[in-house]
Amino acid sequence: MTVADHIMPAKPLVLKKGEDRRLRAGHLWVYSNEVDTHATPLHALTSGDSVTVFTSGGKAMGTGYVNPHSLICARLLDRDRPWSTALCSERLKRALALRERLFDEPYYRVVYADSDGLPGLVVDRYGDLLVAQFNTAGMERRLSDVIDALREVLDPKAILLRNDSPSRLLEGLDLYVEAAFGQVPEEICLTEHGVRFYVPVLSAQKTGWYYDQRANRARMLRYVKGVRVLDVFSYLGAWGVQAASAGALSVQSIEASVDALRYIERNARANDVRVAAVNGEAFATLKALQSAAESYDVVILDPPAFIKKKKDFAEGLLAYRRLNQSALGLVRHGGILMTASCSYHLTHEGFVDVLRRASLRAGREIQLLEQGHQSPDHPIHPAIPETNYLKAAICRVL
Hints:
Layout: E1 10-14, H1 21-24, E2 29-31, E3 50-54, E4 60-66, E5 72-78, H2 85-102, E6 107-112, E7 121-126, E8 129-134, H3 137-141, H4 143-154, E9 158-163, H5 167-170, E10 176-181, E11 188-192, E12 195-199, H6 214-220, E13 228-232, H7 238-245, E14 250-255, H8 258-270, E15 276-279, H9 282-291, E16 296-301, H10 313-328, E17 331-341, H11 348-362, E18 366-372, E19 391-397
Parallel strand pairs: 1-3, 8-9, 13-14, 13-16, 14-15, 16-17
Antiparallel strand pairs: 2-5, 3-4, 4-5, 6-7, 7-8, 9-10, 11-12, 17-19, 18-19
């Protein structure tokens, strides 16, 4: 399949004097308060329009797209060329080359937005099925081009649009889930570290599977053989089922969603292992386990983001501290706490400090054995700290 090239003409977007420093340093975002609205009124632009960003002195900084109604009002796509289907295909081929180098099987995040030169676009691959999110108005405007390029480069049998992320509302976009083309199954089967998992892609969280924790789950495997494991925020059982498959003596998984609980049990059966799946809210269940004087050799925490916005920082920081403090009370002497945070606003140093404070309050000494971040199919753009969001730590508890 060969896609005809489609080039979108660009309109000018002029920055205020001195507001080009971040772009010169490699960042790709333009904020609305950085635009010279006298030279280029934002209200004259339409969401998704192609733009060429200029300094106040008239130097072109790059081409991209605009959303005059968003705080991040423009995102650069290239330093020289305008958007085209050829540019999109080129970026997809570059992204695919990395993943094919990293992984033997076609299960990974194939496009990670800005880090892969396609801001606003996320695509996960499940064999012949692609699950995509178009999270900005600019990328939504280019949806047809992107779908054509995905079909050309990856030749999937179907593409599912999971355009139901709340971040779309900030871009003035509707929320919907639909097939872009092909027959989308209700569930798919993937493998990770040799373990099979069924995923309900039409109803699962986000794009279905958390590929970003793959490398950290690999780190887990050396700690779980022959011991008791507690897996909190288990979702579909990615941690717990792999722990059981790696030879854990027993695995208990805590999950609030009844639907996800059924998949934990199903995925355990699919791999001929046993996992005790418990339906419950994490904080309350941890408290109940402490009251029952339960203890484990390994406790795993993979919570949702408690700090989604800056205004949530103080409350979210307290939640991370309380969660880890409760978990530490359940770890046997010499055991392991594996814990993570996917909140961008909590830095790696801040996360370690959370663990320090939690250990002091729990009256437990910890040794930090390993630290991790997102898997390499979620590459970090060195000029965009927002792409570096996942923190993970493996601690020995004394």
